[in-house]
Amino acid sequence: MDLEVGACKDRARVGLGAPKCGFQRAASWRTVLTLAYESLGVVYGDLSTSPLYVYKSTFAEDIHHSETNEEILGVLSFVFWTLTLVPLLKYVFIVLKADDNGEGGTFALYSLLCRHARLNPLPSCQLADEDLSEYKDLQLMSPTGTSFSSRLKSTLERFKVLQRFLLVLALIGTCMVIGDGVLTPSISVFSAVSGLELSMSREQHKYVEVPIACVILIALFALQHYGTHKIGFLFAPVVILWLLCISSIGLYNIFRWNPHVYQALSPHYMYNFLRKTQRQGWMSLGGILLCITGSEAMFADLGHFSQLSIQIAFTTFVYPSLILAYMGQAAYLSQHHLMDSDYQVGFYVSVPEKLRWPVLAIAILDAVVGSQAIITGTFSIIKQCTALGCFPKVKIVHTSSKIHGQIYIPEINWTLMLLCLAITIGFRDTKRMGNASGLAVITVMLVTTCLMSLVIVLCWNQSILLAIGFVFLFGTIEALYFSASLVKFLEGAWVPIALAFIFLVIMCVWHYGTLKKYEYEVHNKVPLDWLLSLGPNLGIVRVSGIGLVRTELVSGIPAIFSHFVTNLPAFHQVLVFLCIKSVPVPHVKPEERFLVGRIGPREFRIYRCIVRYGYREFHKDDMDFEKDLVCSIAEFVRSGNPGYDGINVNLKDEETMQVVGACWTQADGIQMSEVDAENKGGSPGPSEQTEIVQAHSPPTKPRRKKKVRFIVPESPKIEAEARDELRDLMDAREAGVAYILGHSYVRAKQGSSLFRKAVINVGYDLLRRNCRVPTYDLSMPHESTLEVGMIYPI
Question: CA–CA distance from 544 to each of 582, 628, 677, 692, 767 (Å)?
Fold first, then answer.
């Protein structure tokens, strides 16, 4: 479940502050505790379900529960120290500090490294992007670099191969997260439903368990398009109830069956376990690994909460509850060795018989909450991949008009559902599901460890010895679990590898094709001299209206524009080259959203507008976007006075871009008003804005008339030329907006290798033909859209 990012981050800042007033201090802690409460339902749903299947997966085949209790106590010792070292020490106290302006996750680490090492993860990156507030905040927070960090930065900047390796490493982690989005719902729901095995015979429950799990999964995915904002408030109570339930049962089992089970927390029991079981014990670590599934969510969901709130929730409630649950199971099993062979070592055997049905119901609800969190997280990470040019464009539906981060991607949703059902029906047991889930989880953690070691050196400018110590401590633990999971390749671990490979191929092919296409457009730009030689009318008739030419270029004139001018008998009075791009920061302030510039002399009425979004932002297009776009151009026209104190960015000699915010952020800027022409009334706007430039729709237009006007501040006064330019802009706005799109058909050029032809002509072309087109991104009306095709030999 995603919460409203802006509101949460504001509350997070309040929670981390140091107010002087006692009332403010109380309000601050109240906010932090509220965030900690909310994080229980969002972050810890997956982690809290792990007691359902850890012991069952560990004792599935490799080791057996004997009367000496060395196996069960050794497993408990491994679980305790794994939970202590990885989620608690690594994530809660170290990794959470490596946030990217409050955001977490694999892409946050990658973006952080790219900005510190001055790498360009996107081909459309500009020097102007470094003037964004989040860039500047990062530079102010960075301490002075060491000699080693400086050498490492220069090495990364020089060698393209290292930059590609860094990108592929981040993509591998991302693909494994997507794979986890398939495996977590399957194993969580199946393990919760497996409690039915204690109430019926083995012959009966194997025919009931899988259908019930499939029905729950189908219902879960079928309801995704409604969003979670209506029932999200129930998530935290469900997780709290579940954690209280398993911790209480754990305490009961400890005092009832083995009060001395706490002795197993000594690392000595791990040594005894490995000494007795040897290779089989090492192979069983793949089941123990499942106790930390969902730990990555603490970092990935950092943007919705504060660091302090996540730390409080885990250290004071989640961590103690899980430890008590695992100790309680071990205490029960230490006194029960001769169990019915039909039932394996599992969670439900340690639950008192009278409580099994209520616990089963709560477990299913908690499994659904944990699955919902990972599904929503998968939607979010696919959106981030799309923003960074590493995944084909998909349809993104906003399920809430109030909570900004809640999205739904139909194609991904149904793909995940089919894969979940295939795994549930195909495996039919937690052993192979656990092997698959464990490999996905530990791979993501290994990627995080590698990226964090670079963050320690490049971003925190700490000693290389500290980075080596970090890798040695946590990398050794994770490598041990990774090797144990990889051994189970034929027993289910092949699933995340196969899924990650498929998604990685899609991402690499799309990224490569997009990069080569952009490079072709840059190298084949139309010279500005050619445009100037056409004169103000561009050699054709200029008709009323605004023509929005969608382009990926941030400078220059796209080659496809020459096709427009050559093949069209007329063009619009106002021409805007529109570029909507993502930048390697999580969010862009609305005050810095637009970069506006003029192409050619003023009388040409040709502008460039670059709209910037962070990789965590969601471009929700509506009429306000079109209004903001026109207002940003109008503000740029107004500010072209000598007395205006604005922010100009000199990108190239031919263009000077100006930073302009959305119209609602400009208290002293131009505002636009649109009312029906029949409506004679209407307020002129705020009292301090008195100078009004008006334009009226021509009476011959058959469509519904609109009266459009600019409400302009009193000062500075507008020059006559700027006034005429504003009037032309308003005339064009009233006449309507047309969207001009260039469809590029990419083909490998002659003489290319067979591999390049396969990647471009087959792989990239297949993805391009099956992904969303730019008309969807801007919600363009079909009757106002003009498309022209062009073949790009790359």
Answer: 31, 20, 18, 21, 37
